[in-house]
């Protein structure tokens, strides 16, 4: 099968996890870039982009909303599970198996993270606080506000290994990127969610996907809104002055978030149950992939996902 990965201009760790982790989970033998069969894993990618020939195997993907769904009724679709209850309900899958975002199993991968160990606490036992913006939030602004607030800047455009290296150097993390929250939560790093450009860019998709994942772990997610510096005309101040003021205002909000606390973390028993359920789905799907001869559609295999 071909691992489907959405690729932006600069990259996005949530999407990049697909090519990085699925060969670790299932082995490389089941995947080929030339296959017409799609493996649809991590991300809000369950929509019409997969139309065309070949089998589509859904392994934890989420929808972007109720109005952009593909027709999954044909025998060219197999659904192991979806990301959460929002996606399942939108598909009309009343008996649907939803578990959670598959990225929650990253801490369990052999060789997947064990080289990335947090360093010792700095002098004074000061919290190391990370900041993960949304991939479309302009990096110069995001990095400047993180530096001004004394936070560790973690670009979501890093490849998974470098992203994990920075994430695991943190005691807590403020996140705008959803997979920043998902990975932090999976590794037991408390987090807070914020919004800068993400909700403005994604619209209703933002709430749909966050609650989809959050409800899968019985999480009610609270967001702190930071101001967004969009395009303006007729400015009374120079752009440099405006940007400097904007950065300092955002940095002040970030510092207040750290001071006020209220860090979120899913119940560990719920997380571990979801992780075990995904691993069971992995075994069922591995057996299915193994039993399916090359060139034969997965729907013809004598196994169920």
Strand order of the largest sheet: 6-5-7-8-9
User: Which CATH architecture of the largest domain?
Assistant: 3-Layer(aba) Sandwich
What's the CATH C level of the largest domain? Alpha Beta
Radius of gyration, CA atoms, in whole angstroms: 20 Å
Gap between N and C termini, in Å?
Answer: 16 Å
What is the CATH topology descriptor of the largest domain? Answer: Rossmann fold
What class, by secondary structure content?
alpha/beta
Explained architecture:
- This protein has 305 residues and is of the alpha/beta class.
- The chain has two domains: 2-101 and 270-299, no CATH class; 123-260, Rossmann fold.
- Helices cover 37% and strands 10% of the residues.
- The longest helix has 24 residues, at 268-291.
List the helices and strands and how they pair.
Elements: E1 2-3, H1 13-26, E2 38-40, E3 56-59, E4 77-81, H2 85-90, E5 129-132, H3 139-149, E6 152-153, H4 160-167, E7 172-175, H5 178-186, E8 191-195, H6 198-202, H7 204-216, E9 223-225, H8 239-260, H9 268-291
Parallel strand pairs: 1-2, 2-3, 3-4, 5-6, 5-7, 7-8, 8-9
Helix pairs in contact: 3-8
In a nutshell, what does this entry contain?
This protein is an alpha/beta fold and 305 residues long.
Note the main attributes of this structure.
Rossmann fold, alpha/beta, 305 residues, globular, disordered C terminus
